[in-house]
Model the fold of this input.
Amino acid sequence: MKQNKTPEKKKKTPVPHKERLPEELGEIIEFIEDSRNKEKARKILSSISITKINSATIIGPLPCSEEMENYEKVQPGSADRIIGMAEKEQIHRHEMDKSEQPLRYHLL
Done:
């Protein structure tokens, strides 16, 4: 009687969120996992760290609503103060524009 042996599946070192990695990094990890020196591969994979950086650019005199909420949590009333500062700055800019306007026309 012949016994059919099913080929053993290769055990791969789990990599968190592998599906979210850039394609090239995924290929590197697969290459390391398939290497002959399994202990070295495990050490390399365990030393990989992924850093995600979020950044935002806010244009305008006021912080975004989430930041405003955080300011308010830290110092109650700070959101009103920030809005008040922005309003005062706007009034000041309008007054400066009005005072400079006659000079602009005079120079033309």
Remarks:
- The mean pLDDT is 76.
- The two ends are 106 Å apart (CA to CA).
- Helices lie at 23-33, 38-47, 65-74, 78-107.
- The CA atoms of residues 25 and 60 lie 38 Å apart.
